[in-house]
Amino acid sequence: MTSEETISDERSRGASPAGARDLPIPPPGTMGPPVEYESLRRECPVARVRTLVGATAWYLTRYQDVGSVLGDPRFVRPNVDDWPPPEGNPVSGCHRLVMMMELEGPGHRALRRSLADAFSPAAMREREPRVRALAEGLLDEFERHSGPADLLGGFVEPFPLLVMCDLVGIPYAQQDYFVPLVDSALTAMVDVVEGRRVSAPLYEYVDGLIARKRREPGDDVLSDLLRRQDAGELSADDVTSFGLTMLLAGFRTTTMFLANSVVTLLTSPEHLAQLRGNPGLLADAVEELLRFLPVLNGVVVLQATEEISLLDQTIRAGDAVLPTIPAANRDGSVFPDADTLDFARTRNPHLTFGRGRHFCLGAHLARLTLRVALAALLTRFPDLRLTVAPHELPWEDESPAKSPLALPVRW
Prior knowledge:
It comes from Streptoalloteichus hindustanus. The chain is 47% helix and 8% strand. With 411 residues, the chain is of the alpha+beta class. It has a single domain (3-410), classed as CATH 1.10.630.10.
């Protein structure tokens, strides 16, 4: 029996094992982390959990296990349209949203090679003045408010999107159309039917965008990929996969990290003063915030292609595994005083951007975006502060990926 047939057979069984726990999520009204991290790492580092969509998966919480699984080729990212398996009839008109994280083999390697220069540290250093100018432009508009305003809607949400669109070649002016599609697709973690339903119009948008780039190429990543496709280096599916990946994964997590970073700094006068007094610490502070903030709680889903033993547990072919990166990033065996935010941390091998062949392509772009955003806010608004108590901030409490829904501030 092939790996694919084994996975299909495992899916068809559909049985939820007895004793599965509920997926740990942060307490309502907070960014977390879930209180269960510590006890799971100590007592049950490989646990069976029920996800928010009702499917079951193995939940990993130790740094060693999370890093090992992320880098193990026997675990692959299932397609968003395939896991969890749809109940009853598939959604009518559903397209397969194949992103780069699901690609394997020579095609995946060729696509990453084609993108390596555009997303390299050197390219980000060269692009930094442009990114700074984008930040200042948004903050010029935001600062025109005469009173308290929502920093989330005015800067934290649009800035990562603008930076990504500017690099990739996606029309930022069309955000009112494609962002709702993206957000609906991302609801697949809590509403599978809605997430799959929106795949068709999102595909149509990417197809239309690529067609326009063919007619009117520019100095952007999509145009370069189309030139490489014409040269026979890439397939049309490769280019489409990249476009979908940048829309679905190219800015939302950065937005969430930025929002949670702002909350963390504005509610920690000590850390805020530390950055104001030593701007040169900002790059290390960004790395520590990436480690410390529990944004990706059980969001990364992998699937075993064969039977694997992990800490005396048998993970069957087809089983889903959640390598819980925020739990690994709080593992005290790797990070001393792991629950303490320490901008002077000298060793910080966090797993926020993954590991192995699917290490996040946009890691350096995300770092640049976060660093420029925080530097611009600290410089422009030396007395920036929340207008509500931290416990009064609104949060989306139904999702494992937590960030505030608004950031009311004054300056």
